[in-house]
Amino acid sequence: QVQPVESGGGLVQPGGSLRLSCLASGSIDSANSMDWYRQAPGKQREMVARITRTGKTDYADSVKGRFAISRDSAKNTVYLQMNSLKPEDTAVYYCNANGWDWEYWGQGTQVTVSS
Predict the structure, then answer these.
(1) 3-state SS assignment for residue 82
(2) FRET label pair with 17: which of 11, 56, 85, 101, CA 20 to 30 Å apart?
(3) b/e code 82-98 from CB counts within 10 Å (16+ = b)
């Protein structure tokens, strides 16, 4: 079991930065990938960043150049560094750990970008 727990959300001004953390109860190396998703009210949940077991990363076009996903396997933690934040980034951010036939979701952490 690789149950994630997110933290680090909060209120930030446009142009500001925030780093989210996803602490997993099991080894993140057991997962095929660790992903960050976000969902705003009334909007579709979308994947914003992914890091695979091999370290390959992928980003949504809307966050490329601004967000960076990373991991610390020794701490069973993945991070999402968010820079140059925009009001459109406001959402609940979720961490997802997944294998071939399983997945676990965190409870989410709220990110609000507003002046």
Answers:
(1) strand
(2) 56
(3) beebeeebbbbbbbbbb
